[in-house]
Design a protein that fits this description.
This protein has 341 residues and is α+β, with helices and mostly antiparallel strands. Helix content is 36%, strand content 23%.
Length: 341
């Protein structure tokens, strides 16, 4: 079956979203923790603070609050000390979640191709470099298709019912085509996992289930570790602006985060034994460049310190900086449910 012959069977494609420059995103506790978990198992993750632990031949991240417990599980026999998620995986995950959200209204799968992912991310590399990126996209898709999530709602004192939803983060089915008589895979049909029935369906008990959008400029930020400022800007934008897990930044148009909490959120806070004397200075330079990018390209209307200490030579400067507050603001935008309610 050729991918080109299959596209007519689907209501939504990633190409359609790209041409419209409209990328919806499912912002809820499950997607927020899934995206955060991806950020915490990237390059040099063994030197960073993380929530992942080894469990039954795989890795697991658990997040508990007074109202819910969320478990992210990735089971793979290839897990080792040198294993890490491809740096592009958060970008790929955001696009898959976006296409899945758009397709859910039709109750039919979306279609995803490597070519459309490359174009949506505005990848400008060609030849061998583009081929390497394409392979990283395929590997990311394979990993994302293997991530299992469990959401358990903890009842309050008035309710004894426990709501639990388990299943894949995304469900991807390969669509192969023959090239020179051999099967070739760069296309998949996509559906969101069971969590979407809970969070992308209007529920009077919960109130509105929020869906927001991904700024196209954010998708085009570079994800590669060597482009350090853009890489950090992308992670901040995805985790604070697109998948914060709550709605304060949209309903109140503002969110405050300590520098230390932000760095921990995006997987940039090192284990103390790996933080040398120059770590804070280098990280602050990257962070401030990232904040400027996020403002310049309109991801946030404001991404600045409230009151940041100036760099000093004494040993207390880094701790003062880590406790500084950052303020993120965005334009108020209508946030609706897929049902339009």
């Amino acid at each position: 079956m050729e991918a080109s012959e299959t596209s007519a069977d689907y209501d939504f494609t990633l190409k359609a979203l790209r041409l419209r420059q409209h990328f919806p995103a499912p912002n809820n506790p499950v997607t927020a923790k899934a995206m955060q978990s991806l950020a915490l198992f990237g390059t040099n993750h063994n030197t960073k603070l993380t929530t992942w632990i080894e469990e039954n031949g795989g890795i697991c991240a658990t997040y508990a609050s007074s109202s819910s417990e969320i478990k992210i599980l990735f089971h793979d026999t290839r897990i080792s000390d040198t294993f890490e998620f491809p740096p592009i995986i958060m970008s790929v995950a955001a696009l898959l979640l976006s296409a899945g959200t758009e397709s859910k209204n039709s109750n039919r799968p979306a279609i995803i191709t490597v070519k459309d992912i490359l174009k949506s991310l505005n990848v400008k590399s060609y030849g061998d470099k583009r081929a390497v990126i394409a392979e990283d996209i395929k590997r990311s898709i394979s990993i994302l298709n293997s991530i299992f999530v469990t959401y358990k709602e903890i009842p309050n004192s008035k309710s004894k019912n426990i709501s639990t939803v388990s299943g894949n983060l995304v469900q991807l089915t390969p669509i192969t085509e023959l090239r020179d008589g051999r099967p070739h895979l760069d296309c998949w049909s996509l559906k969101l996992g069971a969590w979407s029935d809970l969070f992308l369906t209007y529920d009077k008990k919960r109130g509105v289930n929020w869906t927001t959008t991904i700024p196209p400029a954010l998708l085009e930020f570079d994800w590669r570790p060597q482009r350090a400022s853009e890489n950090m800007a992308k992670k901040i934008g995805l985790l604070v602006r697109v998948f914060p897990g709550g709605t304060a930044i949209f309903t109140e148009n503002q969110q405050r985060l300590r520098v230390q909490n932000l760095l921990s959120l995006v997987g940039e806070l090192p284990i103390p034994s790996f933080s040398n004397r120059n770590w804070a200075h280098r990280t602050r330079q990257r962070l401030e460049a990232a904040l400027q990018l996020l403002e310049k390209d309109g991801v946030f209307t404001k991404a600045q310190y409230e009151h940041a200490p100036h760099p000093r030579s004494d040993s207390w400067w880094a701790q003062e900086w880590l406790q500084s507050n950052l303020v993120f603001s965005t334009h108020p935008k209508p946030i609706t449910t897929p049902s339009g309610e």
